[in-house]
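Example record for the data management plan.
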Amino acid sequence: MMKVLISGSTGLIGSALVSHLRSQGYDIFRLVREKTGRDESTVFWDIPSGNIDAGKLEGLDAVVHLTGANLSEGRWTEKRKESFHESRVKATRLLSDTLASLERPPKVFISASAIGYYGNRGSEALHEDSLNGTGFLAELCRQWEEATNAATAKGIRVVMARIGVVLSSRGGGLKKLHPFFRLGLGGKIGGGNQYMSWISIDDLVRALHHCLVREDLRGPVNMVAPHPVTNAEFTKALAAVCRRPALLPVPGLALKLVYGEMAVETILSSAKVFPEKLRASGFEFRFPEIRPALEHVLHSSLFVL
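Corresponding structural encoding:
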């Protein structure tokens, strides 16, 4: 039985991954920040102080690291930027350094990253070997990925999962948008020409599992569906699934005034990203097209395993 440690196990992605891997017979351990309610399957860490139960990491087969403060909740103040850095860069470096210090380290370390690595690139086709972009988020992602260097130097197979916009009815942006579109109050954002590289929660969980078992996968891996869409195309598909018109566009200027840098680097940013490594390794998407993906995640409470 493969022993897998997961950080961020109660989040949107982590909880789905735990459910999926357990259904496949994996032995799941959780990396947690709360000391209460701990048992033999939990490992405690304190990111600010740099403390972690290193002894409990000995002999694990794999680690999947999904911790990170939410980027889309309001304006990016300096205090929030510090929390992004601590929960991503500092946390990843702590975990990577600790894994590298073990006598019996895991064979694979999957560490979350994001397609924000590429920055705002318009309609440029982006692959895993595309250059790092500019801006706060692109720089954050670069440092986030570099924080895994100690594990790589130890000889652990490291995968940096560059995750796109995750489609799920249980959380994320879609959960927030869906009620408005059901009421016919949705519409494109800004000019609607910005590209959105997305992935269904089901395919994301399967892709993470795929990276656990495929020994040829290492380095950055784009976790997005093979058919990115513009915001206007996404809006049209979501409105069709909700059987409502999408007639109320949201001006980009209004978003900039309300959310500032966050809106510029996420909602209004354009990244046309393709999953080259996943497809080359034989991964098959269950939901490669946007409308069937939306229909599934909004009309089904079950994960496709």
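Summary line stored alongside the record: The radius of gyration is 19 Å.
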